[in-house]
Structure formats: C-alpha cells, structure tokens
Design brief:
The protein is of the alpha/beta class. Helix content is about 30%, strand content about 15%. It has 14 helices and 18 strands. It has helices at about 45-55, 55-60, 80-90, 125-135, 155, 160-175, 195-200, 285-295, 325-330, 335-350, 355-360, 360-375, 385-390, 395-400, and strands at about 10-15, 30, 35, 65, 95, 110, 115-120, 140-145, 180-185, 205-210, 215-220, 225, 230, 240, 255, 310-315, 320, 405. The strands form five sheets. The protein has a nine-stranded mixed β-sheet with strand order 17-16-1-4-7-8-9-10-18. Strands 12-11-15 form a three-stranded mixed β-sheet, with no helix packed on it. Helix 7 (about 195-200) links the parallel strand 9 (about 180-185) and strand 10. The chain starts with 10 loop residues before the first strand and ends with a strand.
Length: about 400
C-alpha cells in the first residue's frame, strides 16, 4: 500500500475545546442530555499550543481549516479569535470560485476556506461582530447548528437559549461574516423546515442546509431496533424522546448485521436513572462483539490514504487521521470498535501522537502512516471504526446524501 505523507495533507480539523454550553442528548460528551460523561476532561487548546502544533508553513499548504470537533463547541474557547486570525494570516491565496481571475467577473482570489461549527448559544454581541470581521466574506463561514424554531430548537439543543442564537447570527452577519444554517431533521421539527428557511432569509443567512442525523439502528431481521432516543433530566427523571423524522426523505436508520449495543437502563429505588452506575469503566466487550462491529468493513475506501486528505487535532493536542477515530479513542461507552481503537492507541502511547510535543507533521509521518496503517488495513486486521465510517456501509454517506439547500 502506498503511504501518503504530511506534505499531502490539504485539510485540518481542529477541536479547540471539549467544553460546551449545550447538552445534546445524542452527543458523546453526556448521558442522555442530562449529565456530563464521567470520562470527559474539559480542556481548551491554548493559542500557544496551536502554534507549536501547526506551523505557518503547514498552514500554507492547506485548502481549508475546520474548527469543530467531537466533544465541544469551538466558540467556548476564549482564544478562538486569535486562532482564526493566525490561520487567516498564513494561508495561501486561491480562487474560491474554481476558475482563473477575470476582471469582467470581478472575483478576487480568496484565502483558503475556514469553517467554524457552533450551536450559536454562547458569547456576546461584540464577540460575534468581531468574528464576522475576522472571518470576512465568502468562502469563510460559520455553520450554525439550529434544529428548529423557538419552540423546538431546545428539544435537541438542550440548554441553548433561542434569543442567544438569533443574537449571534445577527451580529455575525452585521460584522460581515458568511453564515450557514444547518438543520438536523427530527420528528419534532420536520414540519418547520420551510418556516425556518424563511427565517434564515430574513436574518440574511447565506445558506440553509437540511441534514439527516444518525443514531437509530435496526438489525436486518428487525428484531432489535432503536427508533426513539430517551432524554433525561439531571435528577434522572425521564424528559422526552428524540425520534427520527416520519417522512422517508429525512429518515436515517442504519441497518446492521448482528446486534445493537444498548445502554443499560439502571434505575434507583425511586425509578430514576442512577448515572453513577453508568461509567465507561464498567464496559467490557468480548472478542465476538469486536468482530461483530466489523460487519461494516466489507470494503474500506480509506479516505485518509488518499492525497488531499485531512487530519484531526483533538482538544488535548492529540493528532488523529480523522475525527471519527479520534472520537473512538475518547468515547468508549457505545461500541466495541471504540474499545478496540482505544487499546490500539494505548499500545502506541498517547504521548507519541501529541502534536504539542512533536508537531503535527512528525505524528502523521512517523506514527499513523508508518506504524499503524500498514498493519491495520490488510485482511482481518482492519479496524472496526474505519469500516464503519469508510466501509461499504459508510455511515457518513447516509447523512450527506440528502443534505441540501432547500
């Protein structure tokens, strides 16, 4: 197998923080939208550490930079503006429209694209105006995850206040930034898509994208199905269900071969969930379960083994080939392939993939593309998490295939 190198990397995904103002029920950072998972360490990447990891020379080769992540909202990081300015300063110019500059068309070359993903529910008006100024117009953009309207957005985006979201969008646009409204479709908000699109136009939002969420599964025999996600309050009381959309065009239920691993319903004497009994330390998986996860990997089309790929920096400075395997290392609550990948990283030593200590290029070249991939992309050694996200049943395709500007 031909290995790529750090010189081939064209995209960088940065997780500036593991902190978040929200409690989305299907997010790995919390249990059912109630309490923060016990394994999560809340931490920010500092601006100083980012500069140690990512050199100006590395930034110049990139086509795009994403500030997002698995566990936190980038906007929470107190030094995000400095990070964006740093990337902006060192990027090479390119023509965002994909053709040569022509005076008649009036399109100047833009810097490489910066994307920031957020729920929009935190920071004040001045911050958002400044971010709009720093980000500037096309092609840089902030993607606001807004899943409904004032009466529904909070059903999934728990603890996010609607007035804060509207204030953030308004002031970001006032500062000159390019905004995208990204709308996850559930049963409770599928009737509001058109009304939300109209509101996005009134706010001056540049794009309105509708996306299918993942999280519901069933076996091929339809004998073990998760078709409603339970949401609880901090005292363990049941709150409500998150259910998939009813319309076929927005429904996204994954079909797997053998089994579904469900979280245990552990209740105390009052009939409420006892979150203290649900620690990741109690999860044990048999080899059968690990092998079963590889139902996904019949054929792996490895995106990270192709030129012009991206790499991921987690909130603690660890460097991973992508955000999906990065998520597997930290989140071992849900699936056996998470456990499998965590064991692999522990074998390597977390220090060996620390970008602050070694720099991003060294980790890419000397660990992932030298020690790991040659061994884990052949025969039965293929990793379950890689099969899940880059295999024949690629979950990401199911999300993106129906994403569109409506």
């Amino acid at each position: 197998m031909d290995m790529i190198s750090s010189k081939d990397i064209k995209g960088l995904h940065i997780e500036p923080t593991s902190k978040c103002n929200a409690a989305c029920p299907m997010c790995a950072r919390n249990l059912w939208g109630a309490v923060t998972s016990d394994w999560l360490v809340e931490k920010d990447i500092t601006f100083s550490d980012l500069k140690k990891m990512v050199s100006p020379e590395f930034i110049k080769q990139l086509d795009y930079v994403v500030f997002c992540g698995n566990l936190g909202d980038p906007i929470v990081n107190p030094e995000l503006l400095q990070m964006v300015e740093y990337v902006q300063t060192h990027k090479e110019k390119y023509n965002a429209f994909g053709f040569d500059y022509h005076e008649e068309w009036g399109h100047d070359p833009y810097p490489a694209q910066i994307n920031i993903h957020t729920n929009g529910g935190i920071r004040n008006s001045d911050f958002w105006y400044q971010l709009g100024e720093v980000m500037g117009p096309n092609p840089n953009r902030v993607i606001f995850s807004i899943d409904g309207l004032e009466d529904t957005n909070h059903i999934y985006r728990r603890r996010v206040k609607w007035k804060n979201v509207i204030n953030s969008v308004t002031n970001f646009k006032r500062g000159g930034g390019r905004a995208v409204w990204e709308y996850l479709v559930f049963k409770h908000n599928e009737h509001q898509i058109e009304e939300a699109r109209k509101l996005s136009e009134d706010l001056g939002v540049d794009e309105f994208l509708v996306k299918k969420p993942i999280g519901w599964t069933q076996t091929q025999e339809n004998v073990d199905t998760i078709d409603a996600f339970e949401v609880y309050d901090t005292d363990g009381s049941f709150s409500h269900y998150i259910e998939p959309a009813e319309k076929k065009e927005w429904k996204n239920i994954q079909v797997i071969n053998k089994y579904v691993l469900k979280k245990p319903m552990l209740e105390n004497a009052e009939g409420k969930l006892d979150f203290s009994l649900m620690t990741h330390k109690q999860k044990h998986f048999t080899q059968w379960e690990i092998d079963g996860a590889k139902d996904f990997d019949e054929k792996i089309d490895a995106k990270c083994m192709k030129k012009e790929t991206e790499v991921f920096i987690s909130y603690d400075g660890s460097v991973f080939p992508c955000c999906f395997v990065g998520s597997s290392y930290y989140n071992v609550n849900n699936n056996s392939y998470d456990y499998e990948f965590k064991k692999l990283v522990e074998g390597l030593g977390l220090d060996s993939i620390n970008g602050v200590k070694h720099g991003i290029e060294k980790v890419i070249d000397e660990v992932w593309f030298k020690k790991v991939f040659p061994k884990y992309w052949e025969g039965k050694n293929k990793l379950g998490v890689c099969g899940m996200f880059c295999g024949k049943k690629d979950i990401i395709k199911s999300i993106r295939e129906n994403e569109r500007d409506v």
